[in-house]
Amino acid sequence: MFRADIPQVYHVTEVVHVNLRMAL
Fold it and tell me: CA-CA distances (angstroms) from residue 16 to 1, 4, 6, 12?
């Protein structure tokens, strides 16, 4: 369960990081 959740959370975090970078 957790193993399948980790990749999704990691991907979301990466997307948010890219969005913040583009905002700046």
Answer: 23, 19, 15, 6
Cα–Cα distance measured from residue 24 to residue 12, given in angstroms and rounded to the nearest whole number: 19
The tokens for 24 are 């700046």
Q: Which residue has the tokens 């959740």?
A: 5
Higher pLDDT: 4 or 11? It is 11
Taking residues 1-24, report their average pLDDT: 81
pTM above 0.70, yes or no: no
Terminal Cα-to-Cα distance of the chain (whole angstroms):
35
